[in-house]
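Q: What structure does this chain adopt?
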Amino acid sequence: MNLPPKVTDRAFDRLSEIGAGAQALRVAVEGGGCSGFQYDIRLDEPAADDLVLEGKGQKVVVDPTSLPFLAGAVIDFTEELIGARFVIENPNATSSCGCGTSFSI
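A:
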C-alpha cells in the first residue's frame, strides 16, 4: 500500500496565516512542465472524492488521480531569499527542474 502524502506543521501554519477559510490547499499533478509532470498548488474547494489531510484547523486536499504520484511525499512551506512558497519533497520523482515545480517519474 502506498503511503499518503504528509503535510508539515510549517505548511499548516502558513495556511492559517493566509486565512484560507473554507478553502483548502489543493496539491495536484498534471502533465506538462519541462520534466513531464508539474505540480498545481492552489486554494480550492474540497471535492467529495479528495483525500483530505487536516492539521491546525486547515486542510490540504489531493485528488484521486494525483494521489499515486504523491505517495509518501512531504508538502512543506519554505521562505528563502528568492521568495516563499509551498514545496513538495517527492520520493517518486526521479528528476526535477531547477524551480521544483516540474518533475519526472
